[in-house]
Amino acid sequence: MRIQPFTLGEIATNTYVVYDYGKGNEAYMIDAPDGIAKALGFIREKGLTLTHVLLTHAHFDHVMGLGEIRKEFPLVRIFVDKADDFFLRAKGEGNIELLNNGFPFMLSAFSPYLEALPSEYEFYGEKILSYDVIRTPGHTKGSVCLYDRKENIIFSGDTIFKSSYGRTDFPGGSQSELFSSIKRLLKESDDNALVLPGHGERTTIKEEKAFYGL
Hints:
- This protein is α/β, with parallel strands linked by helices.
- The chain has one domain: Ribonuclease Z/Hydroxyacylglutathione hydrolase-like (Metallo-beta-lactamase, Chain A, 4-Layer Sandwich), CATH 3.60.15.10.
- The chain has 7 helices and 14 strands.
- The protein has helices at residues 37-45, 60-63, 66-72, 89-102, 107-115, 175-188, 205-212, and strands at residues 2-8, 13-19, 26-30, 49-54, 77-80, 122-123, 127-128, 131-135, 144-148, 153-157, 160-161, 164-165, 194-197, 203-204.
- The chain has a 6-stranded mixed beta sheet, with helices on one face. The chain has a 6-stranded mixed beta sheet with strand order 7-8-9-10-13-14.
- Helix 4 (89-102) packs antiparallel against helix 5.
């Protein structure tokens, strides 16, 4: 398995292109920020076909590239947890509410991306591709971590960062839920698991256990 990271967009959001995992020229992507053209260019250069986009949650800075992705790869399957549908339905009405309340200065720049959001998504079950879908509410109600136990890699979205964690003061956020989710994730994961977050640097479960005193 190869993972090509990109840090894109106004909020410096991490996206990951995963390829060369036994599926020929197929690739998938974790999260889809604005500025996604750079990641799509990489996919084209490698001669890959994007088959899946796996969203760790549906905040605006993780979904704004979806319209451009679907335009280039019309058959791509987009997955999100059902509890985050609020942020996507009706052309992103939940995200527009979030922007109005928390980032009004960004609304005009981001609205065109949100208006282009696809109208069709699929909801996660317990597994997707090689990943266990671990539901970690707190940053949003539908936040998930994607854990490939064979490769020992966790895509953590905004649930957990290196020595930090996602904000909980947005609609659907809960600090108590987030801390409960983090504690459960750390206790149920292998110490050596590599954690690839939605923002910032990579970390490990062992490092984060030390940070949280577990």
